[in-house]
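stuck on whats below:

***
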Amino acid sequence: MTCVGTVSGSACAIVRSLHDGDASPKMISSLTEPSRVPELPPIRIILVDDHAIVREGVRAILDTQDDLRVVGEFASGNEALAAAAPLKPDLALVDLKMPGLSAVETIRGLHERVPGIRVLVFTSFGEDALVRATLDAGATGFLIKDALKDDLVLAIRSVAAGQPYLAPAAQRQLMELVRKPFDPRQALTTRESEVLRLIADGLSNKQIARQLRLTEGTVKGYVSQILSKLHLEDRTQAALYAVRQGIASDER
């Protein structure tokens, strides 16, 4: 199967594994659950979710498994990036939608700070652009929060072993997504889209910060993310891109 548009190698590889086998909706992983070797140390896991009740429920399930150990809990991506490295996690269970740092930015940041970490996205949402963006950012699995306990445990073991694991909803979305071109703007968060519009309107970082009530450093970070996601070199290119795409304000 050939991927179209600008689907990344990571997302495309997962989709190929679906296409080459039975594409009927089901959980995908390896053909068999990864073998557990008693002598190996437990899989070290961090939970990144803004809902404490979700973190508590997941921890309660994982605490019943001898080969799984929760070593940290965080209510936001910013908290996780600030404290994850010393914990030496093998896997991060990351919510798709959280306040503050986006799931995509959190996943990228975790890979930078904890080389070799695996990421399983765990959420009640299944938006097309976000599913693909998280896989492009380096997630290995995607699981919906209504999954059964056994599915959660299997997903964690599979992803920790480097094997892709997708919930049926994510499978269907990815199969559809690779059949149509990808608009890179879909990878932008709402805040990044706001910043891009203001760049197109000719505002400086300082002016954008004042208008959005952010620090200038935060705006600078958003600009860097926008340039990276849209594969642009500088603010001038970003402004031209926004005008061509009709993102600039009508009053301009």
